[in-house]
Amino acid sequence: MPDRRLLGLAAAALAAAVAFLAIGLKGNIAFVLELRLVKLAALVQVGVAIAISTVIFQTVTGNRILTPSIMGLDALYLFGQMLMVFLLGGVGYVTLDPQMKFGLEVLVLMALASALLLPMLKSRLDMGLMLLAGVVFGVLFRSLHSLLARLIDPNEFSVVQSASFANFNAVRTDLLVFAAIVTVIAAVIAWRARHVLDIISLGPDTATGLGVGWAGTVTGLLLLVSALVAVSTALVGPVAFFGLLVAALAERIVDTRRHGVLLPAAALAGIVVLVGGQTLFQHALGNATALGVVIEFVGGLVFLLLLVLGSRK
Amino acid sequence: MIRIENVSFKHRTTPILTDVSLTIPKGGVVALIGPNGAGKSSLLSLVARLQPLQTGAIDIDGLPVDSTPGRELARVIAILRQDTTVASRLKVRELVGFGRFPHGRGRLTAADHAIIDAAIARFDLADLADRFIETLSGGQRQRALVAMAFAQGTDYLLLDEPLNNLDMYYARELMRSLRSIADGKGKTVVIVLHDINQASAHADRIVAMKGGRIVADGTPTEILTPETLEAVFGFNMRVETIEGKPFVLHQL
């Protein structure tokens, strides 16, 4: 039963959250708890944002191996950020109101992403080409990013440098409230679109036949994905394979592609992996390695596995 | 009634359809035949607004396909294209249920479930209803897709080579089902067929296309003559009459 599995996932997510808050609680409890609550909220958000955006992206592209980050969306976000530093200067960038800045970055990413992805979807590239194009775009934006990094003042560079690596320990808490609003709205939209997503997964022709306007719906969904990618990248930095890992895990657990079940399952799996993993690393392993590295390693393995299994079909 | 008026269609600069006009009244089975590349599939996708209309006009029961909201059209006309791919991890029952989407936007009522069950029974899918689509054979998957289009409950059903992958038994069963849907429920079925004898046995009317134009249009007895067939397909074939119906021995 998918419902029972969903409940199991929810219980696991709750357990992970409680463990994250409670383990090793000592000293000024109120202070520590507040600190941890803020961090927990950020991790939950990132997990949910990446999970939902990956599932939607896979449905829209009709492809289980693509994720927004494999298609270079987070590299695009970082490039946009660097571009703003370049244009405004380090001081101008820092003095911008962080929430307004973030809002601006989200809008820039949404515009760039739809300008890039829509033509690709319209021409219905096959998976190999999409993957290739994504890798090329990723490299392109990373290169442009480092080109700009070389052009700007070293002091200005330090402003953006910290944002360029995934770091689950140093979460950008100043953006939390604004990011939470974006995530919640996006999650609600995704949930309400769950039946439409089911239809979209049947492909453009069948979807049109069933009365779902393909181009308009897909554009809306891609904008949603861009907003979610912007949230997660802004909070913790780029993570390449986390979404793939979580989406594959959720699909394996609930064993269906119905979005009414898959979306919550992926979001919960995202929370379990991120919050549970962070708890494990902080307490059991004493921060010996970074969670980001391990998630990327495992996610990368899943990616290779899916690629190999997929090519055999 | 489907009204197609002076429709031309180009893929980049290659003309696919040239000045096609056709009227299909409500009720009955209409078979579209013709050699590969005759424009049959393009005509169907234009009628089902899967491709934008370039010149000419198409309307279904008075609804112009290029300006009527997609949701509204989806309750009037259903299409099954050839080579429809299906996302994995979906069960047959879920797939057939998607056919009800235009009516409840995904919320299935008791009436919807009854229609889904009826579609599953009609296309002999009861044993497969809880199997994942990707575990089915090509023919079984084809039947599931036809059942989905049927569950859409529209007055007009467009099927592009639905007999692909079906064995002789299920090909005949499908044609009989379509026949009984047309007779019993007054539905209109437009079907692209390569097996001319299926068209002869089950269709009321045959429309033959060649090179993007309609070259012949009439009852099976009128169309399935050696002269017309040679004009359409480019070679001479024997036609025998069995139980009053013409059958083409094109294998000889």
TrEMBL record, chain A:
Family in the record: Belongs to the binding-protein-dependent transport system permease family. FecCD subfamily.
Alphabetical keyword list: Cell membrane, Membrane, Transmembrane, Transmembrane helix, Transport
Pfam families linked to this entry: FecCD (PF01032)
Keyword Nucleotide-binding: no
Database matches in PANTHER family: FERRIC ENTEROBACTIN TRANSPORT SYSTEM PERMEASE PROTEIN (PTHR30472), PETROBACTIN IMPORT SYSTEM PERMEASE PROTEIN YCLO (PTHR30472:SF19)
Transmembrane segments: 6-25, 37-56, 76-95, 102-121, 127-144, 175-193, 221-249, 261-281, 287-309
Full protein name: Iron(III) ABC transporter permease
Membrane topology of this protein: Multi-pass membrane protein
InterPro entries registered for this protein in UniProt: ABC_BtuC-like (IPR037294), ABC_transptr_permease_BtuC (IPR000522)
UniProt KW Cell membrane keyword: yes
UniProtKB/TrEMBL annotation, chain B:
Cited InterPro entries: AAA+_ATPase (IPR003593), ABC_transporter-like_ATP-bd (IPR003439), ABC_transporter-like_CS (IPR017871), P-loop_NTPase (IPR027417), Siderophore_ABC-ATPase (IPR051535)
Keywords: ATP-binding, Cell membrane, Ion transport, Iron, Iron transport, Membrane, Nucleotide-binding, Transport
One annotated GO molecular function: ATP binding
Residue ranges annotated for the ABC transporter domain, each copy included: 2-236
SUPFAM superfamilies the UniProt entry points to: P-loop containing nucleoside triphosphate hydrolases
Superkingdom field: Bacteria
Family to which the UniProt record says this protein belongs: Belongs to the ABC transporter superfamily.
Protein name per the record: ABC transporter ATP-binding protein
